[in-house]
Amino acid sequence: MTVCTAAAAVLVPALGLTFTPTPSLVAAFLLGLITQGAKIATDTVVQKAVDDSYRGRVFSLYDVLFNVAFVGAAGVAALMLPPDGRSPLLVALVAAIYAALALALGRECRKG
């Protein structure tokens, strides 16, 4: 999870700030892969940490929350982005959030 979020922190500004079609498509594809990689890692942690009798319910809730996050992000983006869809500030903010998550995950991983 740490590697995925750190990779996203680097890729978002590197590919997203050009606001040209090819780098944006590459960024979208790579971020999709990174997101799925993080989800697989999280699924593994959930499988390992949750008791068998609760695992199905936890996975159901987790999957719903994961999908709600995607829909919510699209809604927030629609409200925040300017009409042309270009916001360097928002790209930088997303990269900073990914970097903060990577740092937090890295610290948590070293504790455990």
What would your notes on this structure say?
- This protein has 112 residues and is mostly helical.
- It has one domain (2-111).
- Helices cover 87% and strands 0% of the residues.
- The protein contains 4 helices and no strands.
- Helix 1 (2-16) runs antiparallel to helix 2 and helix 1 packs antiparallel against helix 4.
- The longest helix has 29 residues, at 21-49.
Rg, rounded, reads: 16 Å
How many domains in all? 1
Q: Give the termini separation.
A: 14 Å
* Beta-strand percent range: under 5%
Please work out how many helical segments DSSP would assign: 4
Number of separate strands: 0
Q: Using the alpha-carbon principal axes, give the shape.
A: globular
pLDDT average, as an integer? 90
Give the low-pLDDT segments: none
- Report the sheet with the most strands, covering strand number, pairing sense and barrel closure: none
Element-by-element helix/strand order: HHHH
Structural class based on helices, strands and sheet pairing: mainly alpha
What is the helical fraction, as a range of percent? over 70%
SSE blueprint:
Layout: H1 2-16, H2 21-49, H3 52-80, H4 88-111
